[in-house]
Amino acid sequence: MSDNVLLDIKGLKICFYTFDGVVKAIDGVDLTVYEDETLGIVGETGCGKSITALSVLNLVPPPGVIEAGQIWFEGENLLTKSKKEMLPIRGGRISMIFQNPMSSLNPVFTIGDQITTVLRIHQGMEKQESHQRAIEVFRTVRLPDADQMLDKYPHELSGGMLQRVMIGMALSCRPRLLIADEPSTALDVTIQAQILRLMRDLKREMKTSILLITHDLGVVAQVCQRVAVMYAGTIVELGDLRAIFKQPKHPYTAGLLRTIPRVGHKREQLDTIEGRVPNLIYPPSGCRFHPRCPQAMEVCRQARPATVEVGAGHQVACHLYTAENMA
Predict the structure, then answer these.
(1) What's the confidence (pLDDT) of residue 8?
(2) What is the pLDDT of residues 277-286, one digit of tens each?
(3) Domain 5-93+175-326 coded CATH 3.30.700.20
């Protein structure tokens, strides 16, 4: 992994102003993506993974508002950019694969129309050149009959083929950063394995960094070098893959790992994390995980834990690892 920082998120706070109240969706997230690495953000549904990813492209949907923070990409703070200034960055230098490929493609235009439009806007290609480049991209992502694929409409393709189209479109401009939001969730196990293998291969060939959003620790184990564990809008643990899987420090991380079914381990029922994800209009005081934490202490209810280093590149936000408790 390179020591060069590609993306650096600092103190990110995002709120959604609803009729029911203010949803404090992201509360002080710090996150770094290095050149030529895959960083996974993992956590339960609703923890803020996708909103964090959308904020990088300045695409937080209304009524969401980025209240504070900085998002540095290749030395530029993206949150200071106008919509016009963001246009060449989105799709050109940063691309995103969204959760549902069927809803991400326009059903009334052919696949070819959509990818060639991307190439003409971001690469300045003429029609014939963009057409040829699209065929090359589809061959790269292992789509059969790549030249015929350009004339097809989204409804004519399977879920796995649509996801390959989306990956091809996202990588067609050779971006420096690819954001993949649950890229294999809606696919069967066999197709999922093919898509993840494809992403690994393309990352190696193109030297593109990947920010992978997922709730599936099995996917994380296959493609990521580092992992950020998110809970209720905060990063509770961050470290390399081996440290997170072999030596988890935060009780939430340990709980997630216990829920993974393992071959050869017979259980009458799978482990679960007791309780529910909190209502972020009224988030818990102190550590947001304390109402569900089996190791919660009084200080957990009163004060938010600081993020501390517990190993080389391994950070955790938990009162179990404050200076007083580790002494």
Answers:
(1) 97
(2) 899 999 999 9
(3) no
